[in-house]
Design a protein that fits this description.
The structure is a single chain. The chain is of the alpha+beta class. Among the domains are: about 335-505, no CATH class; about 530-570, no CATH class. It is about 20% helix and about 15% strand. Strands 9, 10, 11, 12, 13, 14, 15 and 16 form an eight-stranded mixed beta sheet that branches. It has a two-stranded antiparallel ribbon with strand order 1-2. Strand 5 (about 210) and strand 6 form a beta hairpin. Helix 14 (about 455-460) runs antiparallel to helix 15 (about 465-475). It starts with a helix and ends in a 14-residue tail after the last helix.
């Protein structure tokens, strides 16, 4: 009953309630101990226990010999109690035989590393919060998705233009998962709780390595010991977040386009005015606020929402969300229809001025060719720096492909979207946003029209795309010998970082006097119903050359004339 009682203790449930809920396991002893078992004891003599003589040995079956038999188990009648056990703080029981119950208010300087239980013993509530979060589950409620089910995520159908799906890439995705190797389960059992790697976010110096299917501390790559690591835990800093988020997709800056390891400590204010140490020097959680280990904010291509609260620039810049918040009145006119990021991120995938590394991002990937012939063999790709964003109207909802459903063809270009933002010029809830645009060549099962989660471990070892697809179909439970097509996919990924200094924001002419950056009258839908001379004179005749903005405001704001009078779209 050891695991049952332990689990119920940190869940705050009685054993009866837990059994009714069906969430506690009652089998097996605690297998998370890392201290060595008792090796020497006198088993020849009986010992006095509860007023009776019993043979010396391991009476409770926990692998440790009683202290009065020469061992180090301080209570050989309870298999929860032995050296190395989790000492649950504040319960009045000395589970680890240290001589006293763990004080919940203990200074971390008194701690020694004993595996995940070192943290969970005092922070059980936090452990449950982490387990239920999107950060651990990689799935959650998806109210902003216009397709798929009510719960979505990386672990529930979510495909992308990088390694397709976690089903074929757990070895790669798991390297940054906050767990220690076990696949996430919605059931908060003890094994799941003990799979949480708190140090990944709370110790800057912590490193880990793969040991079979598990992740273990990589002390050889650390500058401190594990005991020192738990003694000096701290709130997350940029390096904790960016070690994973900047390296997603296969390497530094590969995936998101606006995140790179350089943002950990760059002095280049022009690279990222918010994160640069010479700029605002913000922590990630300054914008992505955290409550109960649930983070605010997500990208347009990410499916689950951890909270209902979105991250808005106006939280720190409240006046800039108003028409009068900018020095230039003409700029203020755009606030209701143009997102802050559109003007303030004129380029992405910039190179930081104080690094030798390239912060180029991936713009295309194909699994039909390789980037080398020595394992790990990666798919061929194109990367680029200093890119002009792609611009689309976005109302905050997205269509994101899911593994269980067929992909469809974008009629405008023949590509198959894995993610695109919903909204258009006529949508009153949509603003013009900046996005990274990425394409990829990926496999699709002809029989179902579904993308195939090719097995990346096969590809990385051999470079054989056909073999990787074959194993991917097996993993999906589909006929591995069925016809397969290679299609080009596309994705839009919202840009939020690498904000430029305000002096480098876009000027009016960048958008209105050129189609190099954005095609307002073509691609973005602002075309007139005819030549300007015809559109204007249909009502006014020839009245000279009045100020455009004055005339526009009179029509839209004062007279409430519908856009369709002049344009080929309508908007309330």
């Amino acid at each position: 009953m050891s695991q049952l009682r332990l689990l119920c203790r940190f869940l705050g449930l009685t054993t009866t309630a837990a059994l009714v809920a069906g969430i506690c396991s009652s089998s097996g002893a605690d297998d998370h101990d890392i201290r060595p078992r008792s090796s020497a004891a006198d088993l020849s003599q009986p010992r006095q226990t509860s007023g009776r003589l019993v043979p010396c040995g391991d009476g409770d079956g926990d692998g440790f010999i009683a202290t009065d038999c020469g061992g180090d188990d301080c209570d050989d009648t309870d298999l929860e109690i032995h050296p190395g056990a989790i000492d649950w703080c504040g319960d009045g029981i000395d589970q680890d035989c240290s001589g006293a119950d763990l004080n919940c208010a203990t200074d971390h300087s008194e701690l020694d590393w004993r595996g995940p239980g070192t943290c969970v013993a005092c922070h059980s509530d936090e452990a449950v919060d982490v387990h239920q979060s999107v950060m651990y589950q990689w799935q959650g409620d998806a109210p902003l998705m216009t397709n798929g089910g009510p719960r979505q995520g990386k672990d529930r159908g979510g495909v992308n233009s990088y390694c397709v799906h976690i089903l074929g890439n757990w070895a790669g995705c798991g390297s940054c998962h906050i767990g220690l190797g076990a696949l996430p389960s919605e059931d908060p059992n003890l094994d799941q709780i003990m799979n949480i790697d708190c140090l990944l976010c709370h110790q800057e110096e912590y490193r880990r390595r793969r040991d079979g299917a598990d992740w273990v501390p990589d002390t050889a790559a650390m500058t401190i010991t594990m005991d020192e690591a738990v003694k000096t835990t701290h709130r997350p800093v940029r390096s904790n977040c960016l070690q994973c988020h900047a390296k997603s997709g296969g390497g530094d800056a590969v995936k998101r386009g606006d995140l790179a390891l350089a943002q950990i400590d760059t002095t280049d204010r022009d690279f990222d005015v918010h994160m640069s140490v010479t700029g605002a020097d913000l922590l990630c959680q300054n914008c992505h606020r955290v409550n109960d280990h649930r983070f605010e904010g997500k990208g347009s291509d990410l499916r689950p929402s951890d909270t209902a609260t979105t991250v808005e620039c106006s939280r720190c810049h409240p006046d800039k969300a108003t028409s009068w918040g900018h020095d230039d009145e003409e700029i203020g006119r755009h606030v209701d229809r143009v997102a802050c990021q559109t003007c303030h991120i004129p380029f992405y995938a910039k190179d930081a001025g104080d690094t030798t590394a390239s912060e180029a991002t991936e713009t295309h990937r194909t699994w039909l060719d390789t980037a080398g012939n020595q394992p790990p063999i990666h798919p061929a790709s194109r990367k680029a720096n200093n890119l002009i964003p792609s611009y689309r109207h976005w109302n905050g909802t997205s269509w994101n492909a899911v593994l269980e459903l067929p992909v469809y063809v974008n009629p405008d270009n023949g590509r198959h979207p894995t993610s695109f933002p919903e909204g258009d010029v006529a949508d009153p809830d949509a603003k013009l946003y900046a996005f990274k645009y990425k394409t990829a060549v990926q496999p699709m099962a002809d029989s179902t029209g579904r993308l195939i989660a090719l097995d990346t471990s096969v590809f990385f070892a051999t470079g054989d795309a056909e073999a990787a697809v074959h194993q991917g179909l097996v993993n999906m439970g589909l006929d591995p010998d069925q016809p397969v097509s290679w299609i080009e996919t596309e994705t839009h990924q919202m840009l939020n970082h690498q904000v430029a200094d305000h002096d480098d924001a876009l000027e009016c002419e960048d958008c209105h006097e050129s189609t190099t950056r954005m095609d307002l009258q073509g691609e973005l839908g602002y075309e007139l119903n005819g030549p300007q001379s015809v559109v204007c004179t249909q009502c006014h005749g020839n009245e000279g050359n009045p100020d455009f903005y004055e005339v526009h405001d009179e029509h839209v704001e004062d007279r409430h004339i519908d856009c369709a009078r002049c344009h080929n779209f309508s908007r309330d």
